Amino acid sequence: MMSLPTPEDLAGLIFLGIVAVTVTGGIIAVNAARLIRAVTGLVICFIGVAGLYYYLNSPFLALMEMLIYVGAVCVTIVFAIMLAEPEPEKQVGKQNAIAGIISLCVGAVLFWSLAVLGTEKAMWPAASVKINDGSILDIGQSLLKNYSMAFELISIVLLMAIIGALVLARAGRVKS
Amino acid sequence: MNILGLSNFLETYLVIAALLFGLGIYGILQRRSLIGMLISSELILSAASLNFMAFNRFLAPDPTVGQIFTLFIMGIAAAEAAIALSIIIAVYRNYKSIDTTDLVELKG
Fold first, then answer.
1. Cα–Cα distances in Å, from A65 out to A8, A89, A149, A151, B11?
2. Model pLDDT, residue B59
3. Which residues on B lie below 8 Å from A46 (Cβ)?
4. For residues A147 and A174, what is the distance between their CA atoms, to the nearest angstrom?
C-alpha cells in the first residue's frame, strides 16, 4: 500500500518546481530573440528566486524580491523597451555564431568551476551558535542599530540615482 | 541522499547561483543590444544575492547580516537599472539604435 506523502516530501517537490522555474526563466532571459520575451523570462526567473528565498527562511526577502525586482525593475525595463524600440525587422540580437559559441563556452566553464568549487573543494564550517533567528524584527533592529550608516547612505544613493536618471533622460531633448 | 530533501543543503543553492551567474555571463557576451546586456547583468546580481542568502541561512552566526546585504544589493540594483536605462534612452535618442554594433564612433 502506498503511503501518503509527508509534508516534507511535498515541500521538496515544490522546491524542485521552484528550481525549474528559476532555471527556465534564466534560460529564456538570455536566449529569447525579442527583448520583451527576455524581460518576461527575467520576471519568471525572479519569481523563482523569490521562492528560493522563501526556502532560505526569509519570507520578508521573498516579498521584497517580488516587490522590487518583479514590480519595479522589470517594469522599468519594459518602459525602456517601449521608448527605445529597436527596428522590428532587425531581430535584436545576438552576435555571430562563433562569438555565440565562445560565450557559451565561457559561461559553461564559469558555471562548472564555481559549482565544483562550491560543492567539492570547499569545506563550509557551520556556525556553532546563532545569536538570533533572523526574523523581520531582528532585521529591523540591526538595520537601525548596526547598519544605520549604510541605511542612510543608500537613501542618498537612491536620491542621486533618481535625480541623475531624470537629468540623463532629459538631456538632448529638443523642443517641438 | 533523497532528491526531495535537496532544499536543506547549502550546495544546492550554490549550484543554482553558479548556474544563474554562468547564464548571465553568457548573456552579456552574446547579446548585442544594450537592454539585453542589462537583463543579463540583473541575472548576475541575483546570483550574488542568492549566494549571500544561502551562506546566511546555513553558516552565519547572525542570520540578519545576509538578509540586510541582499536588501542593499536590491537597492543598488534598482538604482543601477534606473541610471543604465536612462543612459540607454539618451543613446537611443542620439543614435536611433541601441545595438552595440552601431555605437562604434570611437573605434580606431
1. 25, 35, 23, 18, 22
2. 87
3. 46
4. 44
Is B106 inside a domain boundary?
Answer: no
* pTM score, whole prediction: 0.89
Hey, is the C-beta of B9 within 8 angstroms of any chain A C-beta? Answer: no
Residue B100, domain member (yes or no): no
For residue range A36-77, list pLDDT tens digits in order.
899 999 999 999 999 999 999 899 999 999 999 999 999 999
A15 touches B: beta carbon within 8 Å: yes
Non-local (6+) Cβ contacts of B56 within 8 A are A56, A58, A134, B63, B65, B66, B67, B69, B70
Q: What is the span of the domain harbouring residue B21? A: 10-95
Closest by Cβ to B60, choosing from A42, A127, A158: A127
Which CATH number is associated with domain A8-88? 1.20.120.1200
Residue A116 has pLDDT above 70, yes or no: yes
Which of B63, B77, B93 lies at the smallest CB-CB distance from A130? B63
How many domains are contained in chain B? Answer: 1
Map grid coordinates 525572479 to a residue: A46
Residues 102-141 on A with a CB inside 8 Å of B are 102-104, 106-108, 110-112, 114-115, 118-119, 124-134, 138-139
CATH label of the domain that carries residue B91: 1.10.287.3510
Q: pLDDT tens across A81-108, in order? A: 888 876 654 555 556 778 888 888 988 9
pLDDT of A128 reads 76
- What ipTM was estimated for this complex? 0.91
Coil, helix or strand at residue A44: helix
Work out the average pLDDT over B66-77.
Answer: 92
